[in-house]
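Thread: nickel (II) ion complex, take 2
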Amino acid sequence: MALKVTWYSHACLMIETGEAKLLVDPFITGNPLAPVPADQVQADYILVSHGHGDHVGDTVDIAKRTGATVISNFEIHNWLLGQGLEKAHPQHIGGGFNYPWGRVKLTIAHHGSALPDGSYGGNPCGFLFYIQGRKIYHACDTGLFYDMKLIGEEGIDLAVLPIGDNFTMGPEDSLRAVKLIEPRQVLPIHYDTFDVIQQDVDAWKQRVEKETESVVALLKPGESLELA
Ligand code: NI
Ligand code: MN
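Output below.
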C-alpha cells in the first residue's frame, strides 16, 4: 500500500505505513499552526530528533496516552525514562534498527539538543526511513552539510527539509540541499511557525523546480501526500 505522510506543521510528521503510525517531533501544544489538539493525535511510535521544546513537544503526554514507543538518541531516551516512560528505544547517529514496520537510521544534523529542563540531550539527528521499499529522509533541524550527498546516494523518494532560516537552513541553503540529495520529492518544513522563520514557500517551490529535477510537495498543516 501507499505510505501516507501528513504534515502537522513545523517539523511534525505522521507517517502511516498500514501497520503502524509513526509520529515525528510532535510539537502540537503551543504551536500556532497545529491543525489538531495533542490529545487527538494517535501514534504507535514517536521519533524525537533533538531536545528542543519545538520537537520534544507533547511526546511524553502522547506516549503515556497511546502507549507509543519513543525512538530517540540515547541521551533523550534516558531523559524520557526519567519522565516516566517505559517504552523507549535508544539509537544513535549512523545506527539503524529494523522495527516490525521498517528500518530507521539516525543521520547527523548540525544543531543543538538541550532538553526543555536544561538536561543534556546529546547530539541532534535526522531520520532516514526505509519502509516498504521507499526511503524518506527527514533532516529535522540542521544547517546545510555536504554529507547530505551521501544520504542522497541511497536514492531518496521524499526529503523533508527545513527552509525557515534563522534556526535552520534557509531557502538558499535548502535549495543547495535539494541539489545534493536529488530526492524524487521534497517537502519543505520548519517555516511560518514563528515570526523569525516566515518564508515565501511558493517562491521556493518555483526555484527548486526550475533548478532541479525534484518535485516540491506543498502541504498545508493537516494535509497529506501519498508515496506510491
Ligand atoms: Ni531545534
Ligand atoms: Mn526547531
